Amino acid sequence: EVHLVESGGGLVQAGGSLRLSCAVSGFTFDAYAIGWFRQAPGKEREGVSCISSSDGSTYYSDSVKGRFTISSDNAKNTAYLQMDSLKPEDTAVYYCYGGSCPALGYEYWGHGTPVTVSS
């Protein structure tokens, strides 16, 4: 049974940092890409970052490139999203997913962890 659990969200001031974690069970990162998408209230889902299962290449949306860093510990089946220089427009619920990358495909995802960035 696939299960993804996000953690690490919270309230932070603009310019601050957060590190999100995603504990995965039910699949390994050589079978599925791992990544993050976010959804702000009243907005559509937005892909944030992902790691390709084929070669490990990382991808970022233009809005977060240079500020966010995705990584994984495959032995622990855990993914991370380091978020630096946070902006109020980063406020959203962040979801970890398993699927495809860089062509975004969300096959599995967790319940999300909320991130609020105050100005």
Structure description:
With 119 residues, the chain is an all-beta fold. It is 0% helix and 55% strand. The protein is built from no helices and 11 strands. The strands form 2 sheets. Strands 2, 4, 5, 6, 9, 10 and 11 form a 7-stranded mixed β-sheet that branches. The radius of gyration is 13 Å and the shape is globular.
What are the key terms here?
single chain, 119 residues, mainly beta, seven-stranded mixed β-sheet, globular
Spans of at least 5 consecutive residues with low confidence: none
Major sheet characteristics: 7 strands, mixed
Q: Give the termini separation.
A: 40 Å
- Chain-averaged pLDDT: 95
Helix and strand content put the structural class at: mainly beta
Topology as a string of helices (H) and strands (E): EEEEEEEEEEE
Tally of separate helices: 0
Indicate the percent of residues in helices. Answer: under 10%
Radius of gyration (CA) equals 13 Å
Strand content: over 45%
The number of distinct β-strands equals: 11
Shape: globular
List the helices and strands and how they pair.
Elements: E1 3-7, E2 10-13, E3 18-25, E4 33-39, E5 46-51, E6 58-60, E7 68-73, E8 78-83, E9 92-100, E10 105-109, E11 113-118
Parallel strand pairs: 2-11
Antiparallel strand pairs: 1-3, 3-8, 4-5, 4-9, 5-6, 7-8, 9-10, 9-11
State the gist of this model.
Helix content is 0%, strand content 55%.
